[in-house]
Inverse folding.
């Protein structure tokens, strides 16, 4: 079914993203996996192309696109190459950007945003903790004010870009008695005494994605690095999580659709018992089901994108898009592995890597179970 949410300007932008990927990414994917990171030159090249500052005003080095569809186009094209690329760059330009644009002071914007847009300053967001995953209200990291500084103690885990980030937006408790209403956001920078990182985490998939543990041992964060209002950090996060979950949904469907397209081509070429494996009725019917799942899911995600463009995307609708797209992505990719037979289990095949890389999408950005809980509450249950 023809998609209708993008116009010629969006498609021109898509072409520029594809050219960037052809020149700077596709031939290097094996090296990224071997090195377990995306190198800085990739970030700075993305910055030169204007991809990192889509939501940033021009006066700070961004392009001030003012249209979330550009974020969606970029996320789709990155995910078609690897979902890890979409994840790492997406955390920066799609997840952290709203915090740094909407909640910061003029001084903070001038200090951080130009290098944020150029790729010289890589960012991450520190929400998840070892003892509290999707339950952000249960975080234990604390920050106590001492004059013009805040003393930060605690840890974060599963932080995308955590190992290499120059600036991390960290959530910490500042008023213990207020529970969820006593959380504040801080900009923690590389080089601050007491701020250390653990090893790069050994993940099942997305090996090239930089994921790490972060530790804060009496880190003195200047009051000038408080992001947003004191004790309103939880509200700030809740207001911006729908965009993060929508970005995940965009990536999920684009990733699965690309691998499915490649699987269909494989099913036409690979032969068994003297005929293409895709011509067997079971496989033909299965592929028909998979294509339908992708297209129907894409239609919902597209409508969620448009709702966000119009400022009408609700937290519940974003939750629906997130959990459903992750489920469809994993179901489709599992079927694609099966259609490849034994080759589908070989790491040298993109389908195997995609299947492995996708498993986490049902967990991150709020687990699918948490998404269903949000939807259920909306139903009055």
């Amino acid at each position: 079914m023809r998609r209708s949410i993008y116009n010629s300007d969006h498609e021109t932008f898509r072409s520029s993203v594809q050219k960037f990927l052809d020149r700077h990414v596709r031939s290097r994917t094996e090296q990224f996996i071997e090195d377990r990171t995306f190198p800085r030159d990739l970030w700075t090249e993305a910055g030169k192309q204007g991809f990192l500052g889509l939501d940033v005003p021009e006066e700070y080095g961004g392009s001030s696109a003012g249209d979330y569809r550009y974020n969606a186009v970029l996320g789709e094209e990155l995910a078609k190459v690897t979902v890890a690329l979409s994840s790492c760059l997406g955390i920066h330009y799609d997840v952290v950007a709203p915090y740094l644009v909407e909640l910061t002071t003029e001084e903070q914007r001038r200090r951080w945003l130009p290098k944020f847009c150029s790729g010289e300053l890589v960012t991450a967001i520190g929400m998840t903790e070892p003892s509290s995953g999707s339950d952000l209200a249960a975080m234990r990291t604390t920050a106590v004010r001492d004059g013009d500084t805040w003393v930060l103690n605690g840890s974060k885990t599963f932080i995308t870009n955590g190992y290499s980030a120059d600036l991390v937006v960290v959530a910490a408790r500042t008023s213990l008695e207020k529970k969820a209403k006593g959380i504040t956001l801080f900009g923690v920078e590389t080089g601050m005494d007491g701020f250390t990182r653990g090893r790069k985490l050994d993940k099942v998939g997305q090996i090239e994605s930089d994921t790490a543990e972060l530790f804060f041992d009496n880190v003195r964060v200047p009051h000038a690095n408080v992001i947003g209002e004191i004790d309103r950090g939880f509200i700030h996060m809740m207001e911006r999580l729908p965009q993060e979950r929508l970005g995940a949904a965009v990536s999920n469907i684009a990733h699965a659709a690309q691998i499915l397209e490649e699987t269909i081509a494989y099913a036409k070429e690979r032969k068994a018992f003297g005929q293409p494996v895709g011509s067997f009725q079971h496989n033909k019917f299965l592929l028909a089901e998979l294509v339908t799942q992708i297209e129907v899911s894409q239609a919902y995600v597209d409508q969620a994108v448009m709702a966000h463009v119009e400022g009408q995307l609700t937290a519940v609708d974003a939750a629906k898009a997130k959990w459903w797209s992750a489920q469809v992505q994993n179901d489709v990719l599992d079927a694609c592995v099966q259609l490849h037979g034994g080759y589908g289990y070989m790491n040298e095949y993109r389908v195997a890597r995609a299947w492995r890389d996708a498993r986490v999408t049902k967990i991150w950005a709020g687990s699918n179970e948490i998404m269903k809980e949000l939807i259920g509450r909306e139903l009055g249950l």
Notes: The longest helix spans residues 233-269.
